[in-house]
Amino acid sequence: MSPCRKDMAFRDHLGAATEESNPTSLIHGMWEHSRESQHDLTIFTDIPESPGHRAAINILTRERLCEAIGISPEEYIDTLGWAMENPSEPVIVDASEAECFDNMQDSVDITLLPFPHHWPQDRGRYSSASVIIAEDSGIRNMSFHRQFVRDSNHLVVRLVPRHLRTMTMNARKEGREVDIAIVNAPDPVVLLAAAMSFDQNIDELTIAAALHEKLYDKPLRLTRMPNGVLAPADSEYVLWGRITNEDDDEGPYVDITGTVDDVRQEPVIEIDGVIHRDEPIFHALIPGEAEHKTLMGLPRAPTIKSAVNEVCECIDVHMTEGGCGWLAAVIKIRKTKPEDPRNAIEAALAGHRSMKMVTIVDEDIDIGDPVRVEWAMVTRWQPDTDTIILSNQKGSSLDPSRDSDGLTAKVGFDATLPWGVDHDGFMSVQ
Residue 237: pLDDT band by 50, 70, 90 thresholds? Predict the structure, then answer.
């Protein structure tokens, strides 16, 4: 195999991982190990329920992700923003050139794959890090949707109300199924692109291709599954099949907030085929922990920054850990007008409609340090004049405090220096 085919696959980003050779069960074992090891990057090499398969956890924390793709944490927002503005076309290679076709199951049995049952509160075994690529009516979509393992050839997928759900509902109206590929452990840039969400139907694989070319100076390679759907050629696993017209119970499931999500009727996926690389490594993301928050939150930062830049100069955006990487952000601006903070708050909430809380700070504040952010709050923010509360807003389904109709209130804090006063008395010497 030539170096250009191998350099940037998922497995090539695991050099810093610790290998765990002791038998580790799919049933709570990886979750327990993560908690005991303080969320160490780990590869499990002995999984009793899935002989011949390995699994990796905790690769995509913010720092590890940036290291994996070769950029600093300060650069990632602008890099993602650039890719959104400069989509590129992947190249298509034959199955004979695609690493994911190294092995194919003789008969479909997804229970043999290392789908983990992480939290005891979860319904059962889930794939949390797999992305779904769908092609229907000339539109292609790639996105994250958790999948519950129901039996040997069926998954139940939680389709959140985004483009794939719309695609599925439209197909159902016509009595059709939607052809898909489920991809586990592609290169991290593919995962970042899949985690992005857009108002328009944008092909996320073209965003991934742009990132791949910029960061690796190589094209993103796709290969065609037997059902016609294209998937990244060096993925560790690819399953292909159809989103059917059947629904079944999905949930409970520990979501990004650490709370247990509801049981719902959700679409059933029927799997028609399974392929994987030699000695494959399954990406076993643990829901509600740092890796989950990174993948959810990182791709939202560039859209927020872009929205804020429309009204004032935005320097940086940080999706906070306390906000689960999704519901809250701290935003650094360069203030040139007294109304800039209020405008930034409103623009940020419009740029990420699931967000519930925004804090605006000056350029001297380290937005990744919650202590410095709180310091800015207590020394520069006045509750009665520097707080914006918006009622009857569309909330996130991940917020358990939302109203039964899905509405919530949102808040913005202006923790910037007061306008028109001598700033010397507000500057920290520590």
Answer: very high
Q: Is 344 left (phi over 0), alpha (psi -120 to 50) or beta?
A: alpha
User: What is the distance between the alpha carbons of residues 251 and 198, in angstroms, rounded to a whole number?
Assistant: 26
Q: Do domains 71-283 and 299-426 have the same CATH topology?
A: no
Q: Which CATH number applies to 299-426?
A: 3.40.1670.10
Catalytic residues: 255
Residue 265 bridge partners (DSSP): 249
How far, in Å, are 176, 197, 327 from residue 193 at the CA level?
Answer: 27, 9, 20
* pTM assigned to the model: 0.85
Whether the CB-CB separation of 414 and 381 falls below 8 Å is answered with: yes
As a whole number of angstroms, the distance between CA 363 and CA 73 comes to 17
Q: Which residues lie closer than 8 Å to 343 by C-beta, 6 or more apart?
A: 311, 312
pLDDT tier, 430 (very low <50, low <70, confident <90, very high otherwise): low
Query: What pLDDT does 202 receive?
Result: 81
Tokens of 128: 């949390």
Cα–Cα distance, 155 to 430 (Å, whole number) = 54
Per-residue pLDDT tens digits for 372-381: 999 999 999 9
Fold classified for 71-283: Pnp Oxidase; Chain A (2.30.110)
Domain spans in the chain, listed from the N-terminal domain onward: 71-283, 299-426
Residues 6+ apart with CB under 8 A from 116: 26, 27, 29, 30, 31, 55, 125, 126, 284
Helices 62-69, 290-297: crossing angle, 10 deg rounding:
60
Q: Which pairing describes strands 139-144 and 131-136: parallel, antiparallel, or unpaired?
A: antiparallel
